[in-house]
Specification:
This is alpha-galactosidase. By secondary structure, this protein is an alpha/beta fold. The strands form 5 sheets. It has an 8-stranded parallel β-sheet. A 3-stranded antiparallel β-sheet has the order 5-7-6, with no helix packed on it. The chain contains 9 helices and 18 strands. The protein folds into 2 domains: 13-293, Aldolase class I (TIM Barrel), CATH 3.20.20; 305-342 and 376-429, no CATH class. Bound molecules: 2-acetamido-2-deoxy-beta-D-glucopyranose. 2-acetamido-2-deoxy-beta-D-glucopyranose binds next to loops.
Length: 429
């Protein structure tokens, strides 16, 4: 009996050992704007075994469904910045908040060594485990390469990544290193994969050689100047540039929506839902960040958080995204996901002020929601009923309420004012 059990156990464990969750060259898809619509089964790209999705926006049901379709699910979250629209934003102590991220006004660097911050991240990692994620993709951990206001050093990042890895491993989840090639060598033994943005554009993909040789995947994202079609130089450089061989390369729009182009020329638009209201303006994409070494203090010209400020091409041509424009359905914090604690859509009430109620929608969009700084002051504006009507009507996607909101709180039909990130932000949806 015992030997029988033992052999079953041995069999099971050897099977497990054989099936590495991640291997070099795996095809992947990454979607941080919107959530994969798993009502489509099979969901394209059917031959991509790895999906990287937003931890907060993607509910457990979607993750289950992805896994049922054979996908390995990586859950993305920012581990090194405070995104002021997240449901746990109020838990970040003011004393642990540093400078605003260059080009991302709703985000601040955070003190990654702080016990309170680590506690928050532990909860996020638990959330990932509870939702069924197989692995985590913690972003923005490279504050040390930026003007962070907290004196973060490279050693802090190494220690922090070790902490994140231990915590994830405690739930049997794997972890990847986002960008930060400088510390790849130090951490490669405990990182299960890497996620890179723009190493080809920045001519540094070769630095992943050793990592790839250990049979771990590098999920490599490049943002061509144009998606449809991708210009030939971009494609050649991103798909065949030095060091890209063996990488899991995707060509994506910076918004990281459902559209993906692979180096074999195939193109897939993965159906998504909740496309519009998934993130606030200026943060539409979560393209990680400045990649490497050369970029300690990004110039102020960068309008998104990729390595754009290093590249004139990037910053001049690629930034057609929601980040700077007011065109897109901009705003809006995530958390439309059922499993999130995101409060139910409740009509909002805001400080009164009828005078501004007719502000144009574009103005309102660009006036960003939930000023993060307000959190640091002791008194938070209390929402009071006001202006219920006044003749104003906000359009689809417009902000219609939230802390400090002084504009119109009524939505035109058929939209309703919903709390997408209460108490900070409400939007006509
Ligand atoms: C990315 O998508 C946005 C929104 O759909 C679009 O306006 C923009 O032109 C796209 N960018 C590229 C490089 O294709």
């Amino acid at each position: 009996m015992l030997s029988c059990l033992l052999s079953v156990w041995l069999f099971a464990s050897s099977t497990l050992a054989q099936t590495a969750m991640f291997t070099r060259g795996q095809k992947f898809q990454i979607i941080l704007t919107g959530v994969p619509d798993t009502s489509k089964n099979p969901l394209p790209p059917t031959d991509a075994p790895v999906f990287d999705v937003d931890l907060f926006n993607t509910d457990a049901g979607t993750i289950d469904a992805l896994k049922a379709q054979g996908k390995t699910v990586i859950c993305y979250f920012s581990a090194g910045s405070l995104e002021n629209w997240r449901t746990d934003a109020k838990d970040f102590p003011a004393s642990d908040q540093g400078k605003v991220l260059d080009g991302w006004p709703d985000e601040k660097w955070i003190r990654t060594g702080s016990a309170k911050i680590r506690d928050i991240m532990s909860k996020r990692i638990k959330m990932a485990a509870d939702k069924g994620c197989d692995a985590i993709d913690p972003d923005n951990t490279d504050g040390y390469q930026n003007d962070n206001g907290l004196n973060l050093q490279q050693a802090d990042l190494i220690d922090y990544m070790r902490f994140l890895q231990r915590t994830a491993a405690g739930y049997n989840m794997q972890i990847g290193l986002k960008n930060s090639i400088d510390i790849l060598g130090t951490l490669s033994s405990i990182m299960d994969f890497a996620v890179n943005e723009e190493c080809a554009k920045n001519a540094e993909c070769s630095r992943y050689n050793a990592f790839l040789n250990s049979n771990k995947p590098v999920f490599h994202i490049e943002y061509p100047s144009k998606m449809n079609p991708v210009p030939n130089n971009d494609k050649n450089n991103y798909c065949s540039g030095a060091g890209t061989s063996g990488m899991s390369t995707v060509l994506k729009n910076i918004s990281l929506d459902g559209l993906v182009i692979y180096c074999d020329g195939s193109q897939v638009d993965t159906p998504t839902r909740g496309n519009g209201p998934s993130r606030p303006p200026k943060s539409t994409s979560k393209p990680g960040t400045r990649s490497s070494t050369t970029r300690r203090f990004p110039s102020s010209s960068s309008s998104h958080r990729t390595s754009s400020s290093r590249s004139a091409v990037t910053s001049s041509t690629m930034i057609t995204i929601p980040s700077t424009t007011t065109e897109e359905p901009p705003s809006s914090p995530p958390s439309s996901s059922p499993s999130e604690e995101s409060p139910t859509p409740t009509p909002i009430t805001t400080p009164s002020s009828t005078s501004t109620s007719t502000t144009s929608s574009s103005t309102q969009r660009s006036s960003t929601p939930r000023p993060s700084s307000s959190r640091t002051s002791s008194q938070r504006p209390v929402s009071t009923p006001a202006n219920p009507g006044g003749g104003c009507k906000q359009k689809h996607w417009d902000q219609c309420g939230g802390q400090d909101w002084k504009g119109c709180t009524v939505c035109e039909s058929p939209y309703q004012c919903k709390g997408v990130s209460p108490p900070y932000y409400y939007q006509c949806l």
